[in-house]
Write a structure and sequence with these properties.
Elements lengths: L7 E4 L6 E3 L8 E3 L15 E4 L19
Antiparallel strand pairs: 1-4, 2-3
InterPro entries: Cadherin-like_sf
Keywords: Membrane
GO molecular function: calcium ion binding
């Protein structure tokens, strides 16, 4: 568990059916409405987590001209 305030969670789909708790150390996926198996047999979604750090992958290794002749 983490206490990182920048930690963000989100669902990639069905955000009208499920939600992820926005605060606290523990996060919960909760129902926003009743499920009806006659309308939909199952739900498949991905829970996305981000710590607020963006990774950078430079495409040019020689940004400063080092090694040029």
């Amino acid at each position: 568990m983490t206490k990182d305030p920048q930690l963000q969670f989100s669902l990639d789909s069905y955000s009208n059916v499920f939600s992820v708790s926005a605060t606290g150390i523990r996060r919960y996926v909760t129902l926003l409405q009743p499920l009806d198996r006659e309308t939909q047999d199952f739900y498949t979604f991905t829970l996305l987590a981000s710590d607020g750090v963006q990774q950078s992958f430079p495409s040019d290794r020689d940004d400063n001209g080092v090694g040029r002749k």
